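Write out the 3D structure for:
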Amino acid sequence: MLRVAINLGNPVLAQRDESTGTLGGVSVALANALASELGVTVGLTPYDAAGKVFAALEEELWDLAFLAIEPVRAEKIAFSNPYVCIDGTYLVKNESPYQRAAELDDKGIRIAVGQGAAYDLYLSRTLKSAELVRAATSARAVDTFLELGLDAAAGVRQPLERFAKATSGVRVLSDNFTEIRQAMAVPKSKVAAAQYVEDFIDRQLRNGFVRNALNDSGVSDARVASPAAS
């Protein structure tokens, strides 16, 4: 069995049907396609945050995962080339004076973020003055932002924009603080598996599988990465 960790903390990549519990999204589609190609069964384990997926690596609970490429993770994980690129940006209140992401790195600024998310790791490295307030998950980061009256919530553009459209008094900045590159991941010790996954994701980018899977899951605005140069 191919044991696959599915990160539900990023709804661009994976979703769960609340009525049936069925998992869907491009990550699930890629996992099923890989298992079919290998001729093995697949076991999907959902996690509500990327940090929890990374932590599960220590317990050897998965063979394959879907995570953003990050230097901290790359010490223990072998990543494929990215298959989707996503904007990391900020949700702020309508009356907030901030218009650009760079303006939020200032003394006294407090930003909610999901603990262990790619943008938590990125902002932890790059912010010089602002303070990060960590929530258990990326979804909880928005609640933390509102409940504590923080200056911003960091997250993935698409879910933040959906939240802003459904909620009065908040908006999403037009620019981003980073591009989050999503990839397939295997434990770093699995050299042959890493090479296979690298080739697999390149083929799925070239044949349109990734684009179609995103469209089928209702995330047609996600930016598909380019295949590796021939």
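DSSP finds eight helices and 13 strands in the chain.
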